[in-house]
Amino acid sequence: MSESQASGLKETPLASVHRALGARMIEFAGWHMPVQYTGIVAEHQAVRSSAGLFDLSHMGELWITGPDALANVQFLTTNDASRLKPGMAQYTFLTNEAGGIVDDLILYCTAPNEYLLVVNAANTEKDRTWITERLKGNAAIDDRSDSTALIAVQGPSAQRVLSSLTDADLAAIKSFRFVNAELAGVEVLLARTGYTGEDGFECILAADQAHALWNRLMEAGEPYGLVPVGLGARDTLRLEASLPLYGNELTDETTPYEAGLGSFVKLDKGDFVGRAALAVQKEQGPRRRLVGFVMEERGIPRHGYPIMDEAGRSIGWVTSGSHAPSLGRDVGLGYVATEFARADQLIWIEVRSRKLRARIVEGRLLQLRDRT
Amino acid sequence: MYPENLRYSKDHEWVKDEGDGRVRIGITHYAQDELGDVVFVELPEAGQTITKDTPFSVVESVKAVSDIYAPVSGTIVEVNDELESRPELINEDPYGEGWIVVVELSDPSELDTLFTAEQYKEHIGE
């Protein structure tokens, strides 16, 4: 993809579209990306009530192919890729020897011994190097991030928006399944995946078709209230759904068990990078756990704020926090010492030298909407 | 966007002379637009003294935390408590219902150091 002349930042194939829509652009992971079009709250609400359109072309697309592709994917990732048949995808991790998370990703099996890894934009180069240094036998890695676009349609009306543009049987595409389909005349890998807590689809396609597909989706979505959505609302949507963000909840120093994502680690599948360390941690139990919490006093938790017990002793830190538009509450995610990681536990967040009470929520933060 | 009867600080606050040595303070259209949806205002208390160019309040939007700098020095005599329940007033009506505090000036000559509307527009490149 092209580099913006002025800033040296990378641009997606849809950069001119965002500008024409009046988007506010920011730097994100070395990319020039739209943070909002009309406003974060309005865009957030549109995804919860109807549908939103996202340009996620900054994300990385790495292909691992060859007769030993499966063996390599199994050795590099924590989930069990042998369970994937073509048309199936799974959430998984690349982990280091200590069990720390190199990246979280969605792994797609596109054909026998042909795998697509959709990775975080900030980690694409790190992942490519990480994988390249560890590939064994007859397998190759191909970084097609620059020639690949990713457009997501998310929200309860997502399927209705797409249905007028394709003959594919959308209802038959279950969660974490995908098909190769023609959408508005464009060849796409059409997956029922997302990062918003809503139903939706992600379309992976050739970068030079992104402009055409985006425009057709905008037209088709208009009667349903579909609006373009920037990274700002993407962050509040995923936070409400308690979905982790690499760099915040997930880092090279945190493990899947600490993040409460142990179900995506399959210790019994055979050896993989980090397995020994993760097996020990599973046995002993992690010393800290990622929790969601809701503020009981007025104040917004933010990344890096200390978490304390009632006596003021440090027990952890906030990894993400925001006002949650769908909840009308201020919420956050953070790590706390395991003994505090239980439902309804009171914790205190240090917000600008004030100590504010919060309550740990079990399960997704979004469920608070249905409770209140 | 930038009423002629107000004065403006380089940190994007507006100041309205209320007479009697008092001024009303808020943030400008430019500031609220840059912040986006305001969801929280950490208000100071009446009686508190504020010092020019030091923070006295915090405004948070969904994405950002922003200190509000005192454009003048003095004592806070009134606080817009309505912002506690309706922080969005800062976006909707930055020069009206979105005001933040009323301050009794300790040094009225500080008003002369502030931008006029014309100068402020130049400051923000409009």
Report on the architecture of this protein.
The complex is a heterodimer of chains A (372) and B (126). Chain A is of the alpha+beta class and 372 residues long. Among the domains of chain A are: 3-57 and 147-240, Gyrase A, domain 2 (2-Layer Sandwich), CATH 3.30.1360.120; 287-371, Beta Barrel (Elongation Factor Tu (Ef-tu), domain 3), CATH 2.40.30. Chain A contains 9 helices and 20 strands. Chain A has a 6-stranded mixed beta sheet with strand order 11-12-13-10-4-14. In chain A, helix 2 (40-49) crosses helix 7 (231-240). The longest helix of chain A has 12 residues, at 210-221. Chain A is globular and about 60 Å long. The mean pLDDT of chain A is 96. Chain B is globular, with a radius of gyration of 13 Å. The mean pLDDT of chain B is 95. Chain B has helices at 29-35, 82-85, 89-92, 117-123, and strands at 7-8, 13-19, 22-27, 38-42, 49-50, 55-61, 65-69, 74-79, 101-105. In chain B, strands 1-2-3-9-8-5 form a 6-stranded antiparallel beta sheet. Chain A binds chain B through residues 24, 35-36, 39-41, 232, 235-236, 298-300, 302, 322-323, 325, 330, 352, and chain B through 36-37, 39-40, 42, 58, 60-63, 65, 84.
The overall pLDDT of chain A, averaged over residues, is 96
Sheet having the most strands of chain A: 6 strands, mixed
- Averaged pLDDT of chain B, please? 95
How far apart, in Å, are the first and last alpha carbons of chain A?
45 Å
The CATH class name of the domain at 3-57 and 147-240 in chain A reads Alpha Beta
State which percent range the strand residues of chain B make up.
35-45%
Question: What descriptive keywords fit this protein?
Answer:
heterodimer, A: 372 residues, alpha+beta, Gyrase A, domain 2, Elongation Factor Tu (Ef-tu), domain 3, 6-stranded mixed sheet, 6-stranded antiparallel barrel, 20 strands, 20% helix, globular, B: 126 residues, 3-stranded antiparallel sheet, 9 strands
